[in-house]
Amino acid sequence: MTKFTRKLNGMRRRPMALGIVLFAGLLAVGTGYSAVNAAVSPKSQTQHSAEEIALGKKLFLSNCASCHGKNAEGTANAPSLIGVGEASVDFQVSTGRMPGAASGPQLEVKPVQFTEEQISALAAYVGSISEGPAIPDQSILQPSGDLNTGGELFRTNCAMCHNAAGAGGALTQGKYAPNLMGSSAKTIYEAMVTGPQNMPVFNDENITPQEKNDIITYLSYLQTNRSVGGEELGNLGPVTEGLLAWLGLLGLIVAITVWLGAKSN
Amino acid sequence: MSEDSKDLAKVSDTRYSEHEYELGLRVTHEDAVVDPGLEPHRVRMTDKSVKHENTAVRQVTALFVLSILGSAFALYAYFAFPIELGNMASVRSNTLFLGLGITLGLLGIGIGAVHWAKTLMPDNEVTEDRHLTRGSDEKRAAAVEIISLASQESGFSRRKLIRRTLYGALAFFPLPGLFLFGDLGPNVSEKLRHTTWKKGTKLARDPSQRAIKAADVTIGSVFHVIPEDLSPDDPEYLEKKSKAAVLLVRVDPSELIETEERKGWSYQGIVAYSKICTHVGCPVALYEQHTHHLLCPCHQSTFDLVDGCKVIFGPATRALPQLPITVDKDGYLVAQSDFLEPVGPSFWDRSVK
Amino acid sequence: MSTAPTKKNGFLTGTANYVDERVGVAGILKEFGRKIFPDHWSFMLGEVALYSFLVLLLSGTFLTFFFDPSMAPTVYEGSYAPLKGAHMSVAYSSSLDISFEIRGGLLMRQVHHWSALLFVAAAGLHMLRVFFTGAFRKPRELNWVVGFVLFVLGMAAGFTGYSLPDDLLSGNGLRIIDGMIKGIPYIGTSISSGLFGGEFPGTNIVGRLYSLHIMLVPAFILVFLALHLFMLVIHKHTHYSGPGRKDTNVVGYPLMPVYVAKAGGFFFIVFGVIMLISTFFTINPIWNYGGYDPSPVSAGTQPDWYIGWLDGALRLAPTGIEFMIGDYTVSTNILLPLVISLVFLAAVAIYPFIENWVTGDKREHHVLDRPRNAPTRTAIGAAGVTFYAVLWAGASTDLIATNFKMSLNQVLVSMQISLIVLPFVAFFVTKRLCLALQRKDREIAIHGRESGRIVRLPHGEYIEVHEPLDPHDLYKLVDFKDYKPTLARPNAQGKITVGIRVRAAMSKFYFEDRISPATQTEIDEAAHHNHEIEAEVKKAIEG
User: What's the pTM?
Assistant: First the structure.
């Protein structure tokens, strides 16, 4: 090898070296962060191909980096994505919350902007930058858990924000916990494990994967079984019942009294 | 106006002219418009035309028949749509068809009867005179007479001693009745000051009772906590839980504002606060991860977790009591002692030592 | 001697004879059989309440055969899968059994709860009708108080009732009540201990509420209902003003057969409509809430609608108003809503006596006012309704925020402001509306209705020809009572007491702005003027 080639090789290697150093630094930060924070999901991590990660990086740079930073380190507009894991990306992007729209108290569900393939690539890329909760495996998402445990856990950990029947509820300053009746098992699992926005994080030490499965089983039951009493009125409780009693029940009866008291033709 | 109905109506009473009531602030006008009397009766179609009358008869009959069919269907539904235990669809069918049948059975009679009255029964308005509510002067005089006779014969007004001691007896006799309710419940003022938390009690998940390690609690998590030894089989499970329920949260230690006194009550950013709202006792269960606010869903009292759970919005006044915690040698979170103040809603002598 | 109207039906004749010989029903039939009842739909609202109460008694009796009010702990092994294995009280478990295992059980539970909501709503609407038409005036002031007590008893019956299943939602309601009671100075903790048999929640409360709910409260309701109806019979029903209707008569239809058919049929209609709603709409799905536990809570925890105004009062209390006197805690944040609610209720109960005192009108009133003809009373009522409505809306701040995408905090603050401001606005706007409507009525009475025919007079003036009213329609517009304010004058002792001054001031408040009914003189003058114009028009056409 000539001296020139060696020098050239050295120059060729420098961008890669920069990448390696950067990667190592980020890895150190990410792992350090994870050590303090994330309880690692024991579920299998899907192996992603280099192509997928590259696609994800391209998508990330063109759609996410303007707010989240070129290296997902965060800016004034959006938080850092270091350590959020594939589950976060999958949750936010596949529900349409991300890309985030104009400012408001919280991210709204909007039409999904990416295909499943693209979402998977984005998730793979962010997951490759640092460790974080993985996308749950299908096996943990089947509604085959214990209904009673699921219901009990749901009422203790979730109902105060999402309502006992999953109809949603208010938080402060315009924020809210959404209705869960249209959410998939995967979305629910990911939300629990990543704690999007002001939702707390329910890591696997707090609610184990099996317990999460129980909760999903319970919610799936609610989603598929309509009330045996008839129309549910949004499951919002005595307020909607009272409205129907005044407007529907009493209203109908008053209409009948007007007919009753009127003279016949 | 039909004459026979007038015969059976009340005969006009002239007592109205006996009494000149005060008009007070009322203004009467001499030239007020004179009452033209009842409007002329408008004849209904069913009175004028036999065809309409027969239609109405058919309609009423049809409604009553519908009612019979409805009730019969309800009877049928009771047996044809039984409840298969565990089959929710069968519960719905039973409710639906039974309800439909009974509804028809009832509405048929109701609408039929009203339609009958409106279309076929006489609709001539009838007038009846009122008489004053008060008794006539003779009746009043008689009443006064009877009462004074009763008073005389009993000696009620004359015999002061008998009368007064009677009042006394009547005033006293209900008192034992009131006091009979004295054992409704033992006074709880003392019990409200303590919970089952004590030094060394492990913090455990609600309701599984699994103990919690400090390492499990990551930043942004919230754990719903009960004392490890609180089991659903405990006969006082709910009473103990209604004071001992706790929220466990980890925040970045640099964000915690701690008073000198309470510096040792947290562990590396992990804090534990009573879950029972200081307003009227609902569980303050909503935790907003980024704002560090605790929100009570009942009346929206809001507490700032990083600032001693002070009230920042809503009708509560007092901050949530903090449970002093630390870790034991195995890394499990334990209480250092009971709460240092009574938990839950305020009561009168709460702060009296 | 009883002579039946028809000899054909021997059985009927025989029975009537048998009963009359033993009970003397003939006299009752004579007295009441052709009693006259005025006919107007707004008079049926009280009936709606009465009939819903009957439905409550019927459905409630069914439920008592299956409900077990014990708070003993049990483990659910029934047919609702999501709760199999759950710890709960026997009361909650029996409620689940009624819903899922007994034929018609869920239907009866829903009938019972929907008719409870209807009972209080109809009673409330009925009270509003009585208020805005002035039906509470002499001789009915006492009946107003009886009705008020019935309304409060209805709230009590509802509250004790929905707390019986011991579910999470109603259990949190009891927790709130306990918190409020504990906040009462000095005696609070004693009352709380007495009510719950010790510490909250204890094992007594459901059983005690059960006794109240199925025995004591219904007994009181029945007694007050009897009083209410007894006075209605004695006073006879009021009627709206109109031709032929005076304070000294009652115009309507006889009890038999018209009212027996209409009112009797109406019972079946009310029952039927309740049954219809209960068949198709879920109410109080207790299976979603789980048995009561002091740790979980559902977003959107509200009481039934008729307790809503009290919950709203709690939510609207300003932050941090609890204070200490030495070592003692004065829970103003609870006492203030409590006191305001009691003052409001007291004001409602004594209103007839206040108005009576101000007007000094001691005659009996059996002709109703159109609300516009009593502008100040109507405006006061509107202000009261607005106050109640803001408190009521205050109980659903979180649902309003979520459903209309608003900030919870902003919704609450707006309601706090509205509570103070809106009643005054409502008073002002309503009073002006009533006076305007009265002026319009007066205009129509004197000048007739605009006919739409425009006529140009010879000297160039355009006028619209008015058609005079039919005398019956005219009478409806002018037959209302007119009051004027009084000045403070010395009494018999020559003194002007505080009472006299207050009364004069209040009479000014009530009657200073007043529109008098059009008199015959004014109508004649206008008609004369009209004739002159008509004559001129005729002359112009012919000439």
Answer: 0.91
